[in-house]
C-alpha cells in the first residue's frame, strides 16, 4: 500500500469516499427539491434556456428581416412579444438576444470562477506571508466597481464581441470569489483528515487536488449562481450604454437600448428584454439561495 | 405558602414534524430561601421548564398549553408581556448555562449591570455604577471598579459566569433560576461557582432552582430535589430522603449509576448504565413514559397501560410510579 | 487598535499605487492617440509640440512617476480633448452632483431599507415580512434602466408629477436617487432582516429579556446595535453598486455627473480624463474600505484587540 493510500484510508477518503460524496450530493438534491421557491426558479430558468435555444429554430420569422410596414406592433398571436422599430419579431429576437446574454453570462462567470479559484487556492494553500499580501490586496480592492474597468477593458481591446465582453465583465469581478475560495481552503486545511494526509507525507498537489479542491465544489456551484446575475446585468448595462454588443447582433441589453427612444409610445420594446433579464436574475438568485440551503444544512435549522 | 408552586405544567412545541411534548406534567414546589435541584438527563425538559417559568420561550413554536405557575401567590401564566418584564430580573432572575454567549459582546459589563439596576430600582447612573462595582466585588471579581469598563471577552468563562450571577442578583430577586450554571465551566471553577450561589442564597434569603444533570451537584447544594424524566417530574422529595430512600425506579437507576469511590469493591465494578433510551416526545408512550426502561414494568400491575400520577407517598415525598420501592413485593424479572 | 489602523493605512499606499499603475498601463495600450485622429489632421510639428506638452514623448516610467506625483498633490492633469480644461476642472464641476446623487440614493436605502428589514425580522413570516422580501428580491433583479424608464413613464409622463430629466430643483432629484437607491435598499432590507433574526436568537438577547428590560431597550440596544454592524460593513461594496448604477442612472436622467461623463470621455478617447476618473473612483472605494474596516473595529470590541 502506498503512502498516499494509507493517508487516504486514514482520512477516510479512498474506498469510502465516492459513496459518501454521492450521498452528500443526493442529500443536497433532496433538500433542494423540498424548497418550492428554488424548484420553481430552477424550472423557469430552464424554460428560459429552452426558449432561447428552440424559439429561433422553429420561429417562422426571420429575426433580422426589416419591414417597416410591420414596425411597432404590440403583442399578438403571430408576434407574441410584438415587433420593434424595424418590424422585427421580438419573440425570436429576444430568444436570440438571450443566447448572447446568457452565453456571455456563463462565460464570464466561468472566467471569474477560474481566476478566483487559482488566486484563492494559492492564497489559502500557501498561507503565511503570501496569503497575507494577497488578501490585503483583495481587502483594499473589495467593492471596486466593475463597470469602469469593464469599459476600460473594452476600450483597450478595441473591438466588442462575445469573447471581449467575457473578458471585460470578468476582469474586475473575481475578488469575492477568490476570497470565498481562500476561506474554504483555509477551513478545510484545518480538518483532521487533511492534517492526517499531510502528516503521513502526502504530496502537496495531492492534498490540494484530492482533499481540498473537490470539497470546494459545493461552494463553487453556489458561486456560479451568485455571480451570474451580476454579470448578466453588467452586460446589459454596457450594451444599454452603447458600449457593448453592436448591431446586427443583439443581446437583451442592446435590445433594451433599441427601445429606449420609443418608450413613451411603445414601452414593450424596452420592457420585454428588461423583464427577461429580471426574470433570469431573479431565478438565479433563488437558485443560489436554494443551493446554499441545500448544500449547507446547518443554515437551515430555523 | 411556598414561594413557587408549579402545577401540572405542560409546554409543547408545535413544529412541522409534530407536537413535541417537551414538558408534559411538571409539578414543583420551591420553599422560600431554599434550593430545589432539578435533575434529569439532557433533553428531559429541565431547561424548558425553567424557561417556561420565566416565560422566555419563543412563541411560536413553544406554547404553555396548560398548568399553573404561582409565584408568591401570583399566577404567572396569565401575565402580559409588560407585567412579566416587571417580574423578570426583579422577582425572578436567571443564570444561564453558557457564560461565553450569555453576555452581549459589544457592551461593557458595567453597562450590562447598570441597565438592570436602572430598570428595576430606578437608580441614577452614578449610583447604579457604584452598586454595580459592589456587586462585582460581592461575586468575587477582583478590582471590580476598574473592570466595569471591560468588555466580556476580557473575562474567563468562570469570571463571566460570576458577572452573569452579579446581574441576576442585582435587584435582590427572591428566586434565582440557575440552568446548568456550571456545566460549561472547568471542574475547578464549578465548585467555586456553586459555593458562591449557596453563600448568596443564605445571605439574601433567596430561593434557588438549580437545574443540573449532575447528581453530585444536587447532593451538595439542594434542599429538595425533583427528578425529571421525558418531560415529567417522576419524583420530588427532600434531598436527604431522596438519596437515602429513592422510590422511583429511574431515581434508583440514576443513583446506582453514580461511582462510589469510597467502596473499594465498587471501584472494580463497571458503572451501572440505564439500558435503553428516553422516548420520542412527539409520540410518547401512552402510559408510563419510563415503562420501556423500567425493570418492574412486566410485573403485572398495569403500569404500561395507564399513566401513573404523581402521588404523595409520604409528606413531601411525591412519586410518579405504580411500584415505588417501598411498596414493591416483586423483584425485577 | 492604533497599530492596526496605522498598518491598515500604510497598506493602502501600495494598493493605490498598484491601481494607478494598472490603469496607467491599460491606458497606454489603447490605440488612438487623441492627436492622431484622422478627422482632425494636425500638422506634424504641432503634434510633436502637443505630445511634448502632455509628456507623451517621455519614457513610460517618467510619465507614470509624473502622474503619481500629480495624483498625490491632487492634480489629475489636463484633458487631452477639451482645450484649457483640466481633469480637476471636470471633477470639480461634475463630481458634486454625483456625490449628491449617491448620498441621496444611500439615504433612500437607509431610510426605507433598514426599517423594512427590522420590521420584517420582528414579525417573521408575517405578511409584511413576505411583502418586503418579495420587494427586495425584485429590487435586486430589475435592471435599473427598466426601473428608470417605468418611473419616467408613469410618474413624469403619465401623471406629470415630477420632471423627466435634469438635475436642478429638488423635484429633479427624486426619481434618479430613488432608482439608484433601489438596489442598496433591497440589499439593506434583506441583510438587516437576516442579521436581526440571527441576533434575536443569541443567548445575550435572552439574558437581556431575563433581566426584565423593556422590549424597546432589548431591541434597540441589544439587538439593533449588533445587527447593524454588518450594515456598516456592507456600505463599502454598496458604494461599488452605486458607482456602477450611477453610470446608467445619470445617463437616463441626463444628470451631468461623473458617471455620464465617463462614458462620454471613453467615446471621445479623452484618456487622461478616463484615467483620472478611474483612479479617483478607485481611490474613493479603497478609502471607503479603509474607513469601514476601522469603523468595524470600533463597533465590535472583540475585533478591536484581535487586530492589534
Keywords:
heterotrimer; B: 333 residues; alpha/beta; eight-stranded mixed sheet; four-stranded antiparallel sheet; 12 helices; C: 308 residues; mainly alpha; 13 helices; 0% strand
Helices and strands, with pairings:
The complex is a heterotrimer of chains A (302), B (333) and C (308).
Chain A (H helix, E strand, L loop, with lengths): L2 H9 L5 H18 L1 H23 L31 H37 L1 H14 L4 H12 L4 H9 L4 H15 L2 H8 L4 H9 L4 H24 L11 H7 L9 H28 L7
Helix pairs in contact in A: 1-9, 2-13, 3-4, 3-13, 4-5, 4-7, 4-8, 4-11, 4-12, 4-13, 6-7, 9-10, 11-12, 11-13, 12-13
Chain B lengths: L3 E12 L2 E13 L4 E5 L6 H9 L7 E10 L2 E2 L5 H7 L4 E4 L3 H4 L6 H13 L3 H14 L5 H4 L9 H13 L5 E5 L7 H18 L2 E6 L2 H7 L2 E6 L2 E7 H6 L4 H8 L7 H5 L42 E4 L2 E3 L14
Parallel strand pairs in B: 3-8, 3-9, 6-7, 7-8
Antiparallel strand pairs in B: 1-2, 1-4, 4-5, 9-10, 10-12, 11-12
Chain C lengths: L1 H28 L14 H10 L6 H13 L14 H36 L4 H15 L2 H15 L11 H31 L2 H8 L4 H13 L1 H24 L5 H10 L3 H29 L1 H6 L2
Helix pairs in contact in C: 1-12, 4-5, 4-7, 4-10, 5-7, 6-7, 6-10, 7-9, 7-10, 8-9, 10-11, 10-12, 11-12
Explained architecture:
- The complex is a heterotrimer of chains A (302), B (333) and C (308).
- The two termini of chain A are 46 Å apart.
- Chain A is mainly alpha-helical.
- Chain A is elongated, with a radius of gyration of 23 Å.
- Chain A is built from 13 helices and no strands.
- Chain B is of the alpha/beta class and 333 residues long.
- In chain B, strands 6-7-8-3-9-10-12-11 form an 8-stranded mixed β-sheet, sandwiched between helices. In chain B, strands 2-1-4-5 form a 4-stranded antiparallel β-sheet, covered by helices on one side.
- In chain B, strand 4 and strand 5 (74-75) form a beta hairpin.
- The longest helix of chain B is centred in the middle third of the chain and has 18 residues, at 187-204.
- Chain B is globular, with a radius of gyration of 21 Å.
- Chain B starts with a strand and ends in a 14-residue tail after the last strand.
- By secondary structure, chain C is mainly α.
- Helix content of chain C is 77%, strand content 0%.
- Chain C has helices spanning 2-29, 44-53, 60-72, 87-122, 127-141, 144-158, 170-200, 203-210, 215-227, 229-252, 258-267, 271-299, 301-306.
- At the A-C interface, helix 5, helix 6, helix 11 and helix 13 of A face helix 1, helix 5, helix 6, helix 10 and helix 11 of C.
Amino acid at each position: 500500500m502506498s503512502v498516499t493510500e494509507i493517508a487516504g484510508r486514514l482520512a477516510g477518503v479512498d474506498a469510502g469516499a465516492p459513496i459518501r460524496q454521492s450521498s452528500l450530493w443526493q442529500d443536497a438534491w433532496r433538500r433542494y427539491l423540498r424548497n418550492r421557491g428554488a424548484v420553481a426558479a430552477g424550472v423557469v430558468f430552464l424554460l428560459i434556456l429552452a426558449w432561447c435555444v428552440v424559439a429561433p429554430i422553429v420561429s417562422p420569422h426571420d429575426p433580422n428581416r426589416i419591414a417597416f410596414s410591420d414596425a411597432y406592433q404590440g403583442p399578438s398571436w403571430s408576434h407574441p412579444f410584438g415587433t420593434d422599430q424595424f418590424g422585427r419579431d421580438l419573440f425570436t429576437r429576444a430568444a436570440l438576444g438571450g443566447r448572447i446574454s446568457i452565453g456571455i453570462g456563463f462565460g464570464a462567470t466561468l472566467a471569474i470562477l477560474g481566476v478566483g479559484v487559482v488566486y484563492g487556492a494559492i492564497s489559502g494553500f500557501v498561507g503565511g506571508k503570501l496569503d497575507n499580501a494577497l488578501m490585503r490586496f483583495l481587502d483594499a480592492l473589495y467593492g471596486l466597481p466593475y463597470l469602469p474597468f469593464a469599459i476600460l477593458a473594452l476600450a483597450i481591446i478595441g473591438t466588442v464581441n462575445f469573447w471581449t465582453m467575457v473578458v471585460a465583465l470578468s476582469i474586475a469581478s473575481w475578488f469575492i470569489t477568490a476570497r470565498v475560495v481562500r476561506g474554504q481552503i483555509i477551513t478545510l486545511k484545518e480538518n483532521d483528515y487533511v492534517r492526517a494526509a499531510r502528516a503521513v507525507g502526502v504530496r502537496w498537489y495531492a492534498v490540494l487536488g484530492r482533499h481540498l479542491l473537490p470539497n470546494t465544489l459545493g461552494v463553487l456551484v453556489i458561486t456560479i449562481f451568485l455571480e451570474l446575475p451580476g454579470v448578466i446585468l453588467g452586460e446589459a448595462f454596457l450594451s444599454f450604454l452603447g458600449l457593448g454588443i453592436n448591431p446586427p447582433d443583439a443581446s437583451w441589453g442592446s435590445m433594451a437600448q433599441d427601445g429606449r427612444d420609443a418608450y413613451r409610445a411603445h414601452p414593450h420594446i424596452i420592457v420585454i428584454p428588461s423583464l427577461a433579464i429580471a426574470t433570469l436574475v431573479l431565478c438565479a438568485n433563488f437558485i443560489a439561495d436554494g443551493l446554499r440551503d441545500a448544500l449547507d444544512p446547518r443554515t437551515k435549522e430555523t | 405558602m411556598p414561594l413557587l408552586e408549579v402545577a401540572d405544567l405542560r409546554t409543547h412545541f408545535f413544529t412541522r414534524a409534530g407536537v413535541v411534548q417537551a414538558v408534559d406534567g411538571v409539578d414543583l414546589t420551591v420553599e422560600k430561601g431554599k434550593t430545589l435541584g432539578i435533575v434529569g438527563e439532557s433533553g428531559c425538559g429541565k431547561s424548558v421548564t425553567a424557561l417556561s417559568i420565566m416565560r422566555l420561550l419563543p412563541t411560536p413554536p413553544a406554547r404553555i398549553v396548560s398548568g399553573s405557575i404561582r409565584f408568591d401567590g401570583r399566577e404567572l401564566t396569565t401575565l402580559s408581556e409588560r407585567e412579566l418584564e416587571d417580574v423578570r430580573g426583579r422577582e425572578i432572575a436567571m443564570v444561564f448555562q453558557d457564560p461565553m454567549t450569555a453576555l452581549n459582546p459589544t457592551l461593557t459589563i458595567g453597562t450590562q449591570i447598570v441597565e438592570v439596576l436602572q430598570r428595576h430600582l430606578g437608580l441614577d447612573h452614578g449610583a447604579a455604577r457604584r452598586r454595580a462595582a459592589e456587586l462585582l466585588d460581592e461575586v468575587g471579581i477582583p478590582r471590580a471598579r476598574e473592570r466595569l469598563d471591560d468588555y466580556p471577552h476580557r473575562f474567563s468563562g468562570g469570571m463571566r459566569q460570576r458577572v452573569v450571577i452579579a446581574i441576576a442578583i442585582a435587584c435582590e430577586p427572591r428566586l434565582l433560576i440557575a440552568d446548568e450554571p456550571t456545566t460549561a465551566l472547568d471542574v475547578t471553577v464549578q465548585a467555586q461557582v456553586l459555593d458562591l450561589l449557596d453563600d448568596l442564597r443564605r445571605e439574601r434569603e433567596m430561593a434557588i432552582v438549580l437545574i443540573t444533570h449532575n447528581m453530585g451537584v444536587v447532593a451538595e447544594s439542594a434542599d429538595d430535589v425533583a427528578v425529571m424524566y421525558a418531560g415529567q417530574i417522576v419524583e420530588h422529595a427532600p434531598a436527604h430522603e431522596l438519596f437515602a430512600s429513592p422510590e422511583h425506579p429511574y431515581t434508583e437507576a440514576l443513583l446506582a449509576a453514580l461511582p462510589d469511590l469510597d467502596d473499594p469493591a465498587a471501584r472494580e465494578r463497571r458503572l451501572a448504565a440505564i439500558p435503553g433510551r428516553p422516548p420520542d416526545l412527539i409520540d410518547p408512550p401512552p402510559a408510563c413514559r419510563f415503562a420501556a426502561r423500567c425493570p418492574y414494568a412486566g410485573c403485572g400491575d398495569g403500569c404500561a397501560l395507564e399513566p401513573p400520577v404523581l402521588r404523595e407517598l409520604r409528606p413531601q415525598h411525591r412519586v410518579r410510579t405504580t411500584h415505588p420501592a417501598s411498596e414493591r413485593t416483586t423483584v425485577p424479572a | 487598535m492604533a497599530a492596526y489602523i496605522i498598518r491598515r493605512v500604510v497598506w493602502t499606499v501600495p494598493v493605490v499605487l498598484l491601481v494607478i499603475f494598472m490603469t496607467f498601463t491599460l491606458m497606454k495600450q489603447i490605440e488612438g492617440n487623441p492627436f492622431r485622429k484622422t478627422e482632425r489632421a494636425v500638422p506634424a510639428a504641432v503634434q510633436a509640440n502637443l505630445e511634448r506638452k502632455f509628456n507623451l514623448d517621455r519614457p513610460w516610467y517618467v510619465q507614470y512617476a509624473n502622474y503619481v506625483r500629480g495624483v498625490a498633490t491632487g492634480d489629475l492633469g489636463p484633458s487631452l480633448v477639451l482645450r484649457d480644461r483640466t481633469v480637476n476642472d471636470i471633477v470639480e464641476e461634475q463630481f458634486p452632483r454625483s456625490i449628491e446623487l449617491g448620498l441621496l440614493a444611500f439615504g433612500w436605502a437607509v431610510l426605507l431599507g433598514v426599517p423594512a428589514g427590522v420590521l420584517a425580522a420582528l414579525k417573521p413570516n408575517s405578511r409584511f415580512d413576505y411583502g418586503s422580501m418579495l420587494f427586495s428580491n425584485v429590487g435586486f433583479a430589475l435592471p435599473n434602466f427598466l426601473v428608470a424608464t417605468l418611473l419616467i413613464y408613469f410618474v413624469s409622463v403619465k401623471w406629470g408629477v415630477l420632471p423627466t430629466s435634469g438635475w436642478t430643483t429638488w423635484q429633479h432629484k427624486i426619481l434618479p436617487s430613488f432608482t439608484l437607491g433601489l438596489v442598496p435598499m433591497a440589499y439593506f432590507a434583506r441583510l438587516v432582516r437576516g442579521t436581526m433574526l440571527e441576533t434575536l436568537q443569541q443567548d445575550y438577547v435572552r439574558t437581556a429579556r431575563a433581566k426584565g428590560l423593556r422590549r424597546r431597550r432589548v431591541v434597540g440596544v441589544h439587538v439593533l446595535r449588533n445587527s447593524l454592524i454588518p450594515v456598516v460593513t456592507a456600505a463599502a461594496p454598496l458604494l461599488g453598486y452605486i458607482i456602477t448604477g450611477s453610470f446608467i442612472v445619470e445617463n437616463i436622467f441626463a444628470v451631468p455627473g461623473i458617471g455620464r461623463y465617463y462614458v462620454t470621455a471613453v467615446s471621445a478617447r479623452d484618456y487622461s480624463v478616463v484615467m483620472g476618473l478611474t483612479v479617483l473612483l478607485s481611490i474613493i472605494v479603497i478609502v471607503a474600505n479603509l474607513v469601514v474596516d476601522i469603523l468595524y473595529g470600533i463597533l465590535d470590541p472583540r475585533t478591536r484587540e484581535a487586530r492589534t
